[in-house]
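Data deposition worksheet. Section B asks for the primary sequence of the deposited chain exactly as it was used as input, without tags or linkers unless they were present during the calculation. Section C holds the resulting structure in token form. Section D is free text for depositor observations; keep each observation to a single sentence. Incomplete worksheets are returned to the depositor.
Section A, Depositor: J.P.
Section B:
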Amino acid sequence: MLKDTEELIGNIAVVNIVEEARVAELGWVLGRAWWGRGIMPEAAREVIRFLFDEVGFRRVIAKHDYDNPKSGRVMQKVGMTFECTIKGGGTNNRGVVDLVCYYIDKE
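Section C:
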């Protein structure tokens, strides 16, 4: 939501948790009109901080479609590190896609 208008423009959420390992996976969407304004990096930084400091996770991961490098750029901006590419590792509205994986540890 935009702070001034309370207009819903996207979503960021924990989409998967591995409790035993204290790992959370983030996923997000943002309306195209709002791309490139620093909104998602700001939101992701705050969610990551919350997951580390308030919830006690030790690692946060995120994945993006190989053909969506802008989502990967968000991951880089929040300090995440490239881990691997999983060939044919996911699906979306285009079918089977390669996934690019990033992580950030609490340390």
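Section D:
The chain has a mean pLDDT of 94.
The first strand starts at residue 10 and ends at 18.
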